[in-house]
Amino acid sequence: MNSFNMTSSLKYPFCLLLTTLVLSMSYTHAHITTKNNDNDDLITTMCHETIAPSICETDIRSDPRRSKPDKKTVVLIIIDVTRSQFLEALTYTKNVTESAHDPGMIRALNKCIEIYNFVVDVSSRSAIAGIETGQPKYAYDAMKDAADEAAACLKAFPDNPPVPFVDRTRALKQTSAIAVKLVELVM
């Protein structure tokens, strides 16, 4: 009978310990899930203010910094995305220039290279510095300039610009416009 009481008395603390452990794990899971949902909600909320919410979300969610975002981080991510797209356009344009023969086309391509270099080297860096130093107006102006510069590339062509440039310009202007709107949200 003593052994029965002893076994029974050990079961109660064990059940209590097990219940506490399960509840603790449930709370931890709920807390982590809520934290991730908060991150997702911030990105979704900010991106839904832009002209292209799904593109905005895709671009931001592809960056590893998105796991712990605040508004500043979201803006820095989209500025980096914008810079990367201009850098890709720059590389593409340099490659096209190497095989071009028409003098008017070469002049237009060189103008686009100059424009893309400016956005990559000056506008993007100014935008990042503006956000990092708490002066988002500089970032706003720099990203607005980036959108304008993308359009200026098309105007450099004497006749109708080649379709790849029209498509790239549309994408560059769209990403720049997304960046402008996200910067507005931190101003």
Automatic annotation (TrEMBL):
Stored SMART domains: PMEI
Signal peptide range in chain numbering: 1-30
Keywords: Disulfide bond, Signal
The keyword Signal is annotated on this UniProt entry: yes
Domain Pectinesterase inhibitor positions: 38-182
Domain of life according to the entry: Eukaryota
Keyword Iron-sulfur (UniProt): no
Annotated GO MF terms: enzyme inhibitor activity
Record-linked Pfam families: PMEI (PF04043)
InterPro entries: Invertase/methylesterase_inhib, PCW_Enzyme_Inhibitor, Pectinesterase_inhib_dom
Family to which this protein belongs: Belongs to the PMEI family.
Record-linked PANTHER family: PECTINESTERASE INHIBITOR 5-RELATED, PECTINESTERASE INHIBITOR-LIKE
Designated name of the protein: Pectinesterase inhibitor domain-containing protein
